[in-house]
Design brief:
This is MPN domain-containing protein. By secondary structure, the chain is α/β, with parallel strands linked by helices. Helices cover 47% and strands 23% of the residues. The chain is globular, with a radius of gyration of 22 Å. Bound molecules: zinc ion.
């Protein structure tokens, strides 16, 4: 396929609150890849994409390197985008997807590129983001996070390549709809644990039943301790800093008022 100026993206603008939600989601598990869909506005004239909301997806297939989005999930995300469009009066639509690479490099696999190219058939400006998490440089104890923004180029499996797209993270406040997406994360993770345990047929093996019930309790506790509690701490910290900032701004306002009054006397 020939490439003209509108057949691929030039730049992606990602709002900081969506980045925070995606990263929190990516950091929620180091065992499997997690994924979600990105919502925002497309600027076809400049071939750029403005991402300002997202949908965290429930994982039904927990095989490694299996990041498939079902048509139902795509449809639900499209309905959510439509709701946001009405609410914000902006042309919001599903314009990309993200997934995590725990303990592996950030670069898209062949499966990722094939999935991405399928989305590009429907929307040439569709974009993919990958968050590489839980990897560290040798000799460092820091948890390294890498982010890549890509599209697929080439039309067959043999010559499929990634095209790196420039990405800029835009400062933003934590919008109510993105806060809700963040708050839904523990519920989605708990649903995943419960759906796996419901699928198992124990038959008459009481020991297996007991073992799996204990495992389920352990996994639910893990969600609470590694996702819910840190998230509560983070939101409390954010609340404290916002409250302190409001006080600062109020003091500045009072001082300015005093100055204006003094000048008008
Ligand atoms: Zn991948």
């Amino acid at each position: 396929m020939s490439e003209n100026h509108v057949s691929f993206l030039r730049k992606v603008f990602l709002s900081a609150d969506v980045y925070a939600v995606c990263l929190q989601h990516a950091l929620s598990t180091e065992k499997e890849e997690v994924m979600g869909l990105l919502i925002g506005e497309l600027d076809r004239e400049n071939a750029s994409s403005h991402i300002s909301a997202c949908v965290i997806l429930h994982r039904s297939d927990k095989q490694p390197d299996r990041v498939e989005i079902s048509p139902e999930q795509l449809c639900e995300a499209a309905i959510y985008a439509e709701e946001l469009k009405q609410k914000l009066n902006r042309p919001m639509r599903v314009l990309g997807w993200y997934h995590s690479h725990p303990h592996i490099t950030v670069w898209p696999s062949h499966v990722d590129l094939r999935t991405q190219s399928q989305y590009q058939i429907m929307e040439p400006l569709f974009v993919g983001l990958i968050f590489s998490v839980f990897s560290s440089d040798s000799g460092s104890t820091y948890n390294k996070v890498d982010l890549t923004c890509f599209q697929a180029r080439g039309n067959s499996d043999d010559n499929m390549h990634r095209r790196e797209i420039a990405i800029a993270i835009r400062p933003s406040c934590l919008h109510e709809y993105n806060l809700k997406a963040l708050m839904d994360l523990p519920n989605i993770l708990m649903k995943e644990v419960l759906s796996v345990s419901h699928e198992i047929n124990y038959g008459t093996d009481e020991f297996a039943k007991l073992h799996n019930s204990a495992l389920k309790a352990l996994q639910l506790t893990e969600v609470a301790s590694s996702v819910t509690l840190p998230m509560c701490d983070l939101l409390q910290m954010r609340l404290n800093s916002v409250t302190a900032r409001i006080k600062e701004v109020q003091m500045i306002r009072d001082k300015l008022k005093e100055q204006v009054e003094a000048m008008s006397r």
